[in-house]
Design goal:
It contains 14 helices and 11 strands. The chain is of the alpha/beta class.
Length: 333
């Protein structure tokens, strides 16, 4: 990040307005254009300048492109923190600019409402499916409490990766324990629902990423805590998925997996595309150990028909597989 490119990027009132919007919320390019009342090609040119200066970054989710601010007043990098502070101070001390930003935020409120409405519609359309699955399990609050205990309130979650975030519920629950949350999902539709939930949190505390749990788009040792919440049973190769999780987990970091204990409800394969009918403790112990984790005793949360198990482990060693070695070498290249 160079000061010359930053000052050039900020020498335009539209780009200043975009930066103040992104301080509140990650936005799609079309949403930015809607708020500003400008054409999308024109807004895209402004966004390109901000991204080239390192002030913002784009992220693709299906056919949508989202934009997020990359600076924060809490950044450990002095220049980034200073620029974020300058933008905030400019709004506080310039009445005309503050009035324009306030008008933009009124339009931003409509964007938030549209997102929440779309999420409500999705759940209404899938209510029967969700209710059936929830009815088999124990209370969600007990599972969430078990996840929190497994991570440890006192030590906190640090940099947290929620793999297969779905609706974003677990990312939201654990956000108070984390310095920063990255919520990953393969489905753009689920990411839009998660965004409707998480947009109430400060924008610098979370981000959404589209990606596959078998090929995580992160560098090695990026996270202190990795969470799988009712996700691993969709994996055709859970060993490879956990090896990939181990790759991005820091030494001494923790993985926490909440999933079904082994069961024989075959209809879940047909009706909900479950690949695995849960896991036994023996299976999970072997999977975690081979991936280089040191497992802790599991915790069970019984339900009416199915039991949820919480398996947790500490990252202590490299994955003991040929694929793990190949992943590590590729990441170092």
């Amino acid at each position: 990040m160079k000061i010359e490119s930053i000052t050039r990027a900020l020498a335009d009132p539209t780009r200043l307005r975009i930066m103040r919007l992104l301080a509140d919320l990650e936005l799609a390019v079309g949403e930015v254009a809607q708020i500003l009342g400008q054409s999308q090609p024109r807004v895209s040119r402004h966004i390109g300048i901000l991204c080239e200066a390192g002030l913002a970054e784009r992220r693709r989710e299906g056919s949508w492109t989202f934009l997020r601010q990359t600076i924060s007043r809490r950044s450990p990098h002095r220049l980034e923190a200073a620029v974020a502070e300058l933008l905030s101070a400019a709004e506080e001390s310039d009445p005309a600019f503050a009035e324009r930003c306030a008008e933009d935020r009124r339009h931003l409120a409509a964007i938030r409402a549209n997102r929440e409405s779309a999420a409500e519609e999705y759940f209404a359309n899938h209510a029967e499916e969700w209710d059936m699955l929830r009815g088999m399990l124990g209370p969600a609050s007990k599972v969430e409490d078990a996840l929190i205990r497994a991570i440890g309130k006192k030590q906190g979650a640090g940099e947290l990766l929620d793999i297969g975030t779905g609706t974003g519920r677990i990312a939201e629950v654990l956000s108070d324990m984390a310095d920063h949350v990255v919520a990953l999902d393969k489905s753009p539709e689920m990411l839009r629902i998660a965004r409707a939930r998480l947009h109430k949190l400060p924008s610098e505390e979370w981000e959404l990423v589209q990606g596959d749990f078998g090929a995580l788009p992160f560098r090695a040792e990026s996270f202190d805590t990795i969470v799988f919440h009712h996700v691993l049973h969709y994996a055709h190769e859970p060993a490879a998925v956990l090896q990939e999780a181990a790759r991005v987990c820091r030494a001494g970091g923790r993985i926490v997996i909440a999933d079904y204990a082994y069961h024989e409800r075959e209809e879940l394969r047909r009706q909900h595309a479950h690949v695995r009918l849960g896991f036994s403790d023996e299976q999970m112990l072997e999977l975690l150990t081979q991936a280089g984790f040191d497992p802790s005793p599991p915790v069970a949360v019984p339900g009416k028909e199915l039991t949820t198990k919480i398996w947790s482990a500490m990252r202590t060693a490299e994955p003991r597989t040929e694929k793990g070695e190949a992943l590590r070498k590729a990441d170092q290249a």
